[in-house]
Amino acid sequence: MTPSRIRRLRAVALATGAVFLLTSCASAQAGESGGETLTIDTEFGEVTVPTEPEAALGFYTTDVDILITLGYPLASEQPIRDDWDSFPSYFPQEELEGIKGFHNYPEFNLEHILEVGPDFILNGIGYETDLHDKLTPIAPTYTYNAFDGGDWRDKFQTLAADLGREKQAQAWLDDYAARIAEVKEQLDAEGIAPVVADISFWEGQINVGCYSISCLVFADLGLEISPLADSDGDGKPDSDGTSLSMEQVGQLADIDVIFTGVSEDGSGLITDEEALQANPLWTALPAIANGEVHGYNYEMSYGSPSGQDGLLEVVRKALLP
Predict the structure, then answer these.
(1) Within this chain, do residues 64 and 121 fall inside the same structural domain, yes or no?
(2) 25 pLDDT exceeds 90?
(3) SUPFAM superfamilies in the record, alphabetically (predicted)?
(4) pTM over 0.90
């Protein structure tokens, strides 16, 4: 970004921020356009947001999905990752019809967000602690940390309650619970109870862990997760998991079914790794020999309603005949 464009952004942002400060001083009062507002005490301070915005923007892709689930009308453009050309295919396509994507991660494009002109921003990248104050001059912003390693649904329910959208959130939770119950009933009826694991390959090491939401789906279905996913030995799978060298691959022998993140087009499956193909310990694993390696769109890893639904469908298709 050139210095002149930075100065222009700051000038417009300051002007926008001044208008916002004049119109967001109390809960449930008339907003700038005559609508109601809601004041919320968050970990980033007190924020005042419109109860019925007309052009909401999700700062990260998962935020866009959450906005859709909670029934917010979207701004005409929404962020996608820099390495993507469109929104994930498992997102609700009808709600995204006519919505244009623009790159906003890992490089943040605040100037373009200002040009889009949202009237509400949902920002899940709360680990960037200085980001909230950069967004509030553009539009009223609700910021939270969606990537703290916990169950994303906890944050989802909290923000839905804060924003007065509990009914919409509960509708999704109920639908998801019903789908889990249906798949679990089918698994039980077929006597299908494999040991499962989420496995990745990075820098010459095989990683077994629960950074992805896959372990949430596994647990919801009552599946046995490989103990290798429990790095601290507390009996609960965690994001750190276990890293294995190429000589330790035999420790994966007890795993019946492997799930692994892949690109949107399905490329990048762990079984395509040449280093693993050349390792006899890897090729001898029961899961590999039996073709029980199943890819899921890696963007599902980060936690959102459609991602959770999508991963449940991947697991269902993998396990049920």
Answers:
(1) yes
(2) no
(3) Helical backbone' metal receptor
(4) no
